[in-house]
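Before relying on records like the one below, remember that each one covers exactly one chain. Contacts with other chains, cofactors or solvent are not represented anywhere in the record.
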Amino acid sequence: MSTGSALLDGDGWISEKSYYQKKVHYGTTRVDKCIERHDSIAGAITTQINQYCLRDVTRLNTGNKYTNKEIQYGTATVKIPFTKEIGGIEGMSITKLEHDIGFTPFISKLTSDDLLVFVHGFNTSFTNAAIRTAQLAHDTNFKGEAVFFSWPSSENPATYSTDKKRAKDNFKFLAEFLIKLSENTDKQIHIVAHSMGTYLLVNSLSIINEEIDGNDNLLKSRRLKNNNKIFNQIILAAPDISMDEYHHKFNRYSLSKVARKITLYSSINDHVLSKASRFMNYFIEGTGQARLGDSSAGFFVVDGMDTVDTRQEISAQFFGHSFYANYRGLVTDIYLLLNHGTDPNDRMLQRVIDEKNNTLWLIRD
């Protein structure tokens, strides 16, 4: 992280104009395409390119109708005000974008010992994905490089079913992205996925496992060095996955063998998952089954994964669905997990035994 000038105001306090600059690296399947505007002039239809699309970041935000045929790589520089609070993104913005630089220059920028990979959910623009990645790394004081995979979500809460189809279109691309990262670096890789991004991640990990089953040499050196694991920490934050689907993927493909630790963060107050997502998936999947991130009807606990839940009320401003990045207790817990791999017994968590004699953990705040 580089630091901007620490300006002082007249009383000697740090000025609100002071800021950090955080570089986050990315792979994306968004099409960097301008949206054409069609105007009718005297009965004739003319096509004009939106001139605001001249900037790469604008094109990446607007070209969301298609999945690109290949992954493009780049680096975004995000401005973070000194005055930013934990969990907040106010005042954060992209100040520089190096887009489509190629994989070799991209991988050469990843110089730290640890990597944090973020996979965003639905209703998320490219800009918001970059900002959330920088915010997550900043708030958890993550010392390594921060990377995100951005798929073409439409940044529209009304297009849930369309976003889900786009997520499916990107299973193979995220798998490719994670394999290439793992093959070309010996660094510890941690993955945080949110909402529909967890649906994308779990299915991509299944593809990776299938490919390893068919080719034992795939990622063999990494697996030999890491007790047959590929990744270190995997965090499923507010996962938008049905219980049946997760059981199918987890049991069939042994996802617990992919990472040293898998942690699920859920909430009793996640209205997006408890209502909207269940309703939409009734028409998409034919079932309105509860999502893993929604604990209002009960906890989801399985072997090989730690379940961490918050029973606290989450601000209605975020509809409970961005709690993983806006709730200080959870940010602190993620900090301990990513930076130190701390066991749940040694974190600020309350151990609970549910009615089925399963062990889970509650955030203390």
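The first helix runs from residue 56 to 62.
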